[in-house]
Write a structure and sequence with these properties.
alpha/beta, 4-stranded mixed sheet, 19% helix
């Protein structure tokens, strides 16, 4: 069970047509750990939270015209969620676990210029999830040189 109040941090909330199925699927496919579920008097999922490492994700039903599953809006996403695995975790095995559970892998595992190996997957209702693991620590100067970018702390006006 999660302790409240939470400390300072970020969390994302994702909406599903079938949030109970999504909750179970996210545990099976991605290894998210259940924190708690709130059920209404009819046994419907009113709210739930899952954790991965030190982060939490809220999983719930569509609850307004502005909070819809991609499945309800033609597969469109207005955000994607990035999940960072621990250094040393096997991201290729993680990808295969997700695929075996029915995830659509939209980008196969690949090592990126900044030193992470990552893949992207769609869940059964169309949410896009990116998973990454650091396989080589690089400085900003190294990834700028390799990727053709300029890294700064803040934007210039």
């Amino acid at each position: 069970m999660v302790d409240h109040p939470r400390g300072k941090g970020l969390s994302s909330a994702v909406s599903y047509q079938d949030s109970k199925a999504a909750f179970r699927w996210l545990e099976e496919a991605f290894g998210f750990e259940p924190l708690f579920v709130l059920l209404d008097a009819d046994g419907n999922l009113a709210h739930s939270e899952m954790e991965f490492g030190n982060s939490a994700i809220m999983v719930g039903n569509e609850w307004s015209d502005d909070h819809k599953s991609p499945k309800s809006i033609g597969g469109k996403n207005t955000q994607s969620v990035h999940v960072q695995l621990a250094v040393g975790d096997d991201i290729d095995a993680h990808c295969e676990r997700a695929r075996a559970a029915g995830a659509e892998i939209i980008a196969e595992p690949e090592t990126q210029f900044y030193g992470d190996r990552s893949y992207r997957a769609k869940d059964p209702e169309g949410h896009i999830w990116t998973f990454g693991v650091t396989v080589e620590e690089k400085t900003a100067e190294q990834w700028d040189a390799e990727g053709g970018f300029t890294t700064k702390t803040r934007l210039d006006d």
